[in-house]
Amino acid sequence: MSDTVLYLIYAGVFIGVLLAVEGLFYFLRSMSDGHERNVNRRMRMLSKSRDGRLTLQKLRREEQGDFSKRLASVIPSLENLIASSGLMITTTRLFVMMGITACVVFAAFRLFVILPTASAMFIALVAGFALPYLYLVFLREQRLKKFVTQLPDAMELMVRSLSAGHPVPVAMEMVAKEMPDPIGTEFGMAIDEMTYGLEFENALQNMLVRIPNLDLRMLVIAINIQRSTGGNLSEILQNLSNVIRSRFTMVAKVKAASAEGRMSGIFVGSLPAILGVFVHTLNPDYFGAVWDDPWFMPMMGLMVGLLVTGAFTIWRMVNFKV
Question: Contact, 170 vs 161, CB < 8 A?
């Protein structure tokens, strides 16, 4: 192979690697730009489907079947819980998940725990319905905490928009476009509801149903009062944002001051159970020798009662409401 051909191969490899690196750079930048433009779930859905009405229907879970709608009408509190959790599953699918969880728990009890069939079925039914419900409650609480954390930033964004002369719906639309989930999607849903014919007050009330929070209620009340009687809404929102941030600071100081008490409560409350399991594992006869004693169960019940009382007392001492 001549030197000229070898140099051409080297040049081709160099140009190919250069183009590959440049292409990868532009690809990653386009991905990051798309992520920055679509900062919340509503904006991502709008980027894929330009039909705003269809996006609103999906976010409001209006595409449920007739059976799911009947279930939702019978159990409205469960429907509100699903909406507050941020999940987009139907009520029917939730009940199917509960049934699957109950079957899994029942199979686990039959395989690993010696229990009568009736007792195993009862425990499986309770766990099958309780575990998904508690998971929804956990998701709702986490979502509400994140919403409250984002609310002061959203208010300041609205203040800047209002100070520039924009009306309230435009200020809310800026929050819907610029803020991440959950507050961006929630404000966007309210804007879409107003766009497709719902009254301004009703759209805000629907957001309150999805996000039952006192700070958001204060924001809604301030907006409604300003729309009916007038006033400097930007100043009100700025003061409300400062109050919320001051409360966050106070909560953080209280948690720092009570951290030692909370850790002591966790340690004291869990230590007897850990020691009991440890002793029983090392020496099964330690409790087995007195298991049939008539005083054993009453004393164990008294011990558990005192332990629960002490843990509750410590929790009340270190749990401050700000």
Answer: yes
Q: How many CA atoms lie within 13 A of 200 on its CB side?
A: 13
- 57 CB-side CA count, 13 A: 9
Residues 6+ apart with CB under 8 A from 215: 148, 151, 240, 244
pLDDT computed for residue 27 by the predictor: 54
Q: Please name the amino acid found at residue 222.
A: A
Element (H, E) at 84: helix 76-85
Residue ranges in the chain modelled with pLDDT below 70: 1-14, 16-38, 63-64, 67, 72, 114, 320-322
| pLDDT attached to residue 284 | 80
d(CA 192, CA 183) in angstroms, rounded, equals: 14
pLDDT of residue 77: 84
- Give dist(CA 185, CA 47) in Å, integer: 14
**In the chain, domain spans:** 1-37, 57-143, 150-253, 258-318
Fold of 150-253: Receptor-associated Protein (1.20.81)
Kindly report the backbone phi and psi dihedral angles of residue 103, in degrees, each rounded to the nearest multiple of 5, phi listed first: -65, -40
* Cα four-point dihedral sign 299, 302, 307, 310: negative
User: What local confidence, expressed as pLDDT, does residue 167 receive?
Assistant: 92
Helix (H, G, I), strand (E, B) or coil at 172: helix
Which residues contact residue 156 at a Cβ distance below 8 angstroms, ignoring those fewer than 6 apart?
237, 238, 241
Burial code (b: 16+ CB inside 10 Å, e: under 16) for 18-52 equals eeeeeeeeeeeeeeeeeeeebbbbbbbbbeeeeeb
How far is Cα 285 from Cα 134, in angstroms, rounded to an integer?
38
Distance, CA of 148 to chain centre: 11
Q: How many CB atoms are closer than 10 A to CB 246?
A: 12
